[in-house]
Amino acid sequence: MLPIIIVIGGLVVILLVIALAVIAIYNGLVAKRVQCENGWAQIDVQLKRRYDLIPNLVETVKGYASHEKETLESVIRARQQAIDAGSVGEQAQAESFLTATLGKLFALSEAYPELKANENFMQLQEELTSTENKIGFARQHYNDVVSRYNTACQQFPANIVAGMFNFEQREFFEVVDEAVREAPQVQF
Amino acid sequence: MTDAPAHADKFSAYPPDLTYHDLIARNKRNSALLVLGMGALSVAVCVAVGVVIMLYANGGVSLPGLVLACVVGVFVVSMTGCWSYFSGGRALLALSGAREIQKADDPQLFNVVEEMSIAAGLPMPRVFVMHEAALNAFATGRDPRHAAVAITTGLRQRLTRDELAGVMAHEMAHIRHHDIRLTMLVATMVGLIVMAADVAGRSLRYGGRGRSRSGGKGGGAAVLIVLVIVIVLAIVAPLLARLIQFAVSRQREYLADAGAVELTRNPKGLADALRKLAADTEPLTVANRATAHLFIVNPILNARGRENLNSVFATHPPIGERVRRLEALMV
Question: What is the number of structural domains in chain B?
Fold first, then answer.
C-alpha cells in the first residue's frame, strides 16, 4: 500500500514540476513574441508617418521645381508601391526603393536655393530625415528582438513547447541592398 | 540615414560576455543594497543618539528605548528612501535648473531623443534643457518609464546632428542600463548626507565658542545630541564618499559609451562630441559634489582644468581614454 502511494505521489510531483516548467517557458515565449509584435508596430508607425509626410513634401517642392515632374512622380509611385506591399520581404524592398527616390528628391533640391531656404521645406526635411532614422532604428530593434525570439524558440527544451503551441519563427526585416544601389538608374 | 546592419544581433559594442541585461540586474541589486545600507546607517545614528539621551537622563540604557530608536531609524530611512525614489529625479532636475521642453521648442533635439528611444525599444523620456553656457548633459529617473534627459543650451548649440545623437544615445544607455536609478539614489540620499557632513564638520571646527556659552541642562543635552550626530557623520562621510566612488565607478561611463554605440552603430558621433566636451573649459555652475556623477563629463573644474583625476570624487574616466575606446570600435 505504502509504496504505491509513494510512487503515485512521486509521479504527481514530477508532473507538477513539468507543468510549471511548461508554463514558465510558454510565458517567456509569449513575452518575446509580444516584443516582436511591438517592434513591428513601431516600424509600422514610422512607415505610416513617412507616407503622411510625402504628399506635403511633394506639394512644397512643386511650388519651386514644378518641372522636375519625373522625380516627383517616381516618389509618389514608390510611396504607393510601399503602401500596397504584402509580405515583410516585399515591404522591405518597396521601402528601400522609397528611401532611394526620396534621397534623389533631396539631392535635387540642392539646385534650388529658394526651396532649400523655405521654412516649410526645412521642417519637412528634418521630419523625413528623422523618420528615416526612426525606421532604421525601429528595424534594428525589431531584428534584435526577432533574433532573440527565434533563438528562444529553437533552444531545448523551449523548442518542444514552441512546437506544442505553434510558435512560429519570424522573418527579419532586411534591407534590400540591391534596390538601394540600383534605384538611381531606374527609369520611369 | 543611419546604416544599421540588418542583423542587429551580430553587433555588440559591449565587452565580451556582457549584455545590458547583466547591467540592469547589477544596478537593481546595487540600488537595493544602497537603500539597505542607508537603512543600517540611519538605525545606527538613531541608536547612538538614543543611547546618549538615555545616559544623559540617568535612566540607563533600556530595551524599549533602543527599540524606539530603531523604529525611528527605520522610519527616517523609509521616508527619505520613498522621497528619493519617487521624487529624486524631479529634485535633481530642479536642482540643476533644468526646464522641460516640448517638441515645438526644438524639433531636432526631440527627434534625436525619440530615435534613440526607438533604437532601445524604450518609452520616450521627458526632455529638459539647462540654460547654461557649459557643455554637459545627464539623464535621471527611477526607471525607463519615468526617465528624463537634460542638456545644456551650450552643448545643444555646439553639436551636429550626429554628435547630438551620440550624446543622447549615451544618456539613453544610462536609462536602458538602469544606471539612472542608482545614480539618482546616490545623489539624493548619500550625496546630501556628504554635503551635510561637510557643513557639520565646518561648524564643529569653527563653532566651538558658541557651544561653551550655552548653559543649563536642556541646552547641554541638545548640544550633546548635535555633537553625536556630527561626530557620527564626520566618521561616516568619508566612507560614504568612498561609496559614491564605488557605486558610480568609472566603468559605468565606459559601458554607457558602449551602449550608445550599440544604439547608434556610429562611434564617430559620440567620439566627436566627447572631443568638443574635452575642449570646453566653462564650469557648470549648477553642479555640485552630490550631482557631479550624473553628468556625461565631470562638471566640476579645478584650477588646473577639466579633470582632477586624483580626487576622491573622480567619478569620470579621462575623456581621452573614452575617445580612444570609441575609436577602437570604428571599423
Answer: 2
Same domain, B175 and B255: yes
Interface residue ranges in chain A relative to chain B, Cβ cutoff 8 Å: 35, 38-39, 42, 46, 99, 103, 123, 126-127, 129-130, 132-134, 136-141, 143-145, 147-148, 172-175
User: What's the confidence (pLDDT) of residue B249?
Assistant: 67
> 10 Å Cβ neighbour count for B198?
15
In B, minimum Cα distance to A99 occurs at B1
B34 with B155, same domain: the answer is no
pLDDT value of residue B245: 63
Q: What confidence tens digit (pLDDT) does each residue in B134-161 have?
A: 899 999 999 999 999 999 999 999 999 9
Sheet containing strand B98-100, strands side by side: B98-100, B126-130, B146-152, B137-143
What is the pLDDT at residue B9? Answer: 44
Question: SS3 sequence, B116-147?
Answer: HHHHHCCCCCEEEEECCCCCCEEEEEEECCEE
Whether chain A has a CB inside 8 Å of the CB on B4: the answer is yes
Looking at domain A2-185, which of 1.20.120.140, 2.40.128.280, 1.20.1440.20, 1.10.260.40 is its CATH number? 1.20.1440.20
Residue-number span of the structural domain to which B105 is assigned: 96-180+249-329
Catalytic (active site) residue B171:
yes
Asked if B120 reaches chain A (Cβ–Cβ under 8 Å), the answer is yes
d(CA B69, CA B50): 6
The catalytically annotated residue of B171, B253, B262, B307 is B171
> Is it the case that residue B256 has pLDDT exceeding 60?
yes
* Domains of chain A, residue spans: 2-185
